[in-house]
Amino acid sequence: MREDLLYFIWKHNKLSAKPLYTGNNETVSIKSTGFQNMLAGPDFFNAQVEIDGQLWAGNVEMHSKSSDWYVHHHETDENYNNVILHVVWEDDIAVFRKDGSRIPTLEVMRYVPTELLGRYRNLIENSRSTFVNCEKDLKDVDAFILENWLQRLFIERLENKSKLILQLLETSKNDWEAVLFMVLAKSFGSKVNGTYFLDRAKQLDFSVVRKTTNEPLQLEALLFGHFGLLHADDCTDSYYRELNKEYGYLKQKFDLEDTFTKPEFYGLRPLNFPTIRVSQLTSLYSGNHNLFSNLIDFTTLEDIYQTLEVSTGRYWEEHYTFGKPSKKRDKKLSRNFIDLIIINALVPLKFCYSKYVGRQWDEELIGLMSHVAAEKNSVIQNFGKIGSKATNAMETQAQLELYNNYCTKNKCMQCAIGAQLLNRNL
What we know:
single chain, alpha+beta, 7-stranded mixed sheet, two-stranded antiparallel sheet, 16 helices, 11% strand
């Protein structure tokens, strides 16, 4: 039996209505389950349990078998000296603290309702043949619980995305403009080149970008060269030669390191070619010294669209790669692409910045994301098929967090949906 069921039974106090006894035949009465510890150490802190008439306050540890206490070497760990009760599915051995005193053990398998155990097994066993374990019963989940859980999941996703931003903030010495440049570069690289673009952006001193924003040719040469797009020494295209010459000058002036790698073109649609994306990124920064300040104070989607609806330079209106002319086309950032930038870069950045300066953020960001169009991918489509159709980006981000960090890991007992399905009429 998995320990997550034990956590669920204890947390939701499914044993309190029954006479309980330890393996040593001592009476047990649960006064308070305490709160669950998600880090290292005992599973529940500050519980209160009456054992044989004596009230104890302390921690509770849980295992599938009581012998797991020794498998995990808790007998030598001082963090477990104040465990007042060992809650296990199967009590197969007596357990002792480091000082030699015996720990009372409660064997849960003797007390779990048959219906609860059946629901748990049905839920977990569904993982073998379904999209998510609860897909047959998802329609029965209370709408209020589901709405609040999705908002919590959206915040969890923001917290996970903020880890990268906080790392970048530390390495850039709290330069928010530099952090914006790095997360934008990652977004402009999309799925195929995002990691590469981010790595290259991290290697570029942002002060050099600042110094070239008033010179479009220099800025484009800087970014094209640094992002590995000026490697074709045999290219005779005049614009390529001009950029290459300018980049050589900038390398010498700012003591830039040579770039020996290059981004991917294979498998990409022409509008997603790194040449097009880097030119658009250049246009966004050309003449713009305070892009972070402009974007961090956004209040409406239209404000963001107006700032980010940039196009390529003129050369790229008739090219997708150097030296190969194509039909003239205005290659402006699409609304769909800007939505992805909002979702993956701007909102996480504003989330971090608001916490950094002590501003309220929840209502504003949830409201903003509620007006961004729902994302389209296989996970979102599958949720729609089982009765959970997302209508906006806040909900799709929550569904992705749910699927990636709960459903695929069978963490149903830590999910509000799974908890309600197991709690029904019990």
